[in-house]
UniProtKB/TrEMBL annotation:
Protein name stated in the entry: SDR family oxidoreductase
Subcellular location: Golgi apparatus membrane; Golgi apparatus, Golgi stack membrane
Cofactors required: NAD(+)
Organismal lineage: Bacteria, Bacillati, Actinomycetota, Actinomycetes, Kitasatosporales
GO cellular component: cytoplasm
């Protein structure tokens, strides 16, 4: 298969590109490097089946070769990134999604949309299954991301209904692992980098809000299963083990052996109070379920952060 991966130099995208190449597929990565890094894919550029085009998916893209699948991962993804790129986030979710849907239709290719648990907003139903329609503030600071993804889902389903496009939607819950940027503002990368630097861990609110964290390898298996399927979904992909943010902070401190304190800061506007996926549908439809426990995934992630030259850990603590 030849697979177009938008956002392929980002955190999830680079792992997906690697997994596709490992199983013998060719990959065409499209990225504008707004939150992705060339270092994430530098090792892939040597592979004969891999190419990367620096471009913005809000501009139509024509492929010179065949396309069997399009996976649309391009989007600012952390609250910090979509906060600094609000208009680009909306444009990537709307125009970008339409451009890639058109590409898929032209080539009769499978189209997989990376949607998000954020379509559920601050959920009033717990845990969240795919039949829940969500509780999103349409004008709040998170709305540029939430509504862009909700629009992208609506557009994808319209293409499926009106153009017979082979569209599949996955709703990704908080995912972590190697290649997260230390400065992306997400909770796992922030806590690990703060702990390793012996700086205070910035807990927003009282830390009682919950998330359910999925290790990147599990997420990539889910994405591959969705590429290979012809089902529309939507499927929740995430690890249903739920933790409070405070529990996460304490776990990171114990894994890193850090003496950092917790610093409590104001909770950002519209921050969801709780989030946990029901994954029965993905299990039944894709045969998928996550395997990596949080403690194990965090150890791999901490090891990766320690291996990075820009991690300023005092030698004694390495
Ligand atoms: P990321 O920021 O590491 O990757 C996104 C990539 O998209 C980056 O390489 C960025 O440069 C690229 N990009 C952004 N806008 C673009 C544009 N207009 N044109 C071309 N490239 C563009 O984020 P990630 O965590 O890897 O997320 C990947 C996808 O998965 C996103 O769509 C995100 O919404 C979704 N998702 C991720 C999570 C998570 O926890 N990681 C959770 C839910 C959904
Ligand atoms: N969070 C925190 N400290 C940080 C970054 C985030 O306490 O330095 C909290 C944030 O308020 C949210 C949770 O951790 O409740 C997850 O935040 P993240 O940005 O990782 O993902 P999202 O809000 O998109 O789920």
């Amino acid at each position: 298969m030849r697979v177009v991966v938008s956002g392929g130099s980002g955190f999830l995208g680079s792992h997906l590109c690697e997994a596709l190449l490992d199983r013998g597929d060719s990959v065409c990565c499209l990225d504008n490097f707004s939150s992705g890094r060339s270092a994430n894919i530098a090792h892939l550029l040597r592979e004969p089946g891999f190419d990367c085009t620096a471009c913005d998916v809000t501009v139509p893209f024509r492929s010179s070769g065949d396309v069997d699948a399009v996976v649309h991962l391009a989007s600012p993804a952390s609250p910090f990134d979509y906060g600094r790129l609000p208009l680009q986030t909306l444009a990537t979710g709307s125009r970008g999604t339409e451009n890639l849907l058109r590409l898929a239709v032209r080539h009769n290719a499978r189209f997989v949309l990376a949607s998000t648990s954020e379509v559920y907003g601050d959920p009033q139903v717990h845990p969240q299954d795919e039949d829940y329609w969500g509780n999103v503030n349409p004008i709040g600071p998170r709305s540029v991301y939430d509504e862009a993804k909700r629009f992208a889902e609506a557009l994808s389903m319209a293409y499926r209904r009106s153009q017979s496009a082979d569209v599949g939607i996955v709703r990704i819950f908080n995912t972590y692992g190697p290649r997260m940027r230390a400065q992306d503002g997400r909770v796992v990368s922030s806590f690990i980098s703060q702990a390793l630097e012996e700086e205070p861990l910035t807990v927003f609110g009282d830390g009682s809000q919950t998330r359910s964290f999925c290790y990147v390898d599990d997420m990539v298996r889910g994405l591959l299963a969705m590429i290979d399927s012809d089902l529309p979904g939507p499927f929740n992909l995430g690890n249903p083990t739920e933790r409070t943010v405070r529990e996460l902070a304490e776990l990171v401190l114990s894994i890193t052996g850090s003496g950092s304190e917790l610093r409590f800061l104001p909770l950002p506007a519209d921050d969801p109070a709780r989030r946990r996926p029901v994954i029965t549908r993905a299990h039944q439809g894709l045969g998928w379920h996550p395997r990596v426990p949080l403690e194990e995934g965090l150890r791999h992630t901490v090891d990766w952060f320690l291996s990075q030259p820009d991690t300023h850990v005092r030698p004694r603590e390495r």
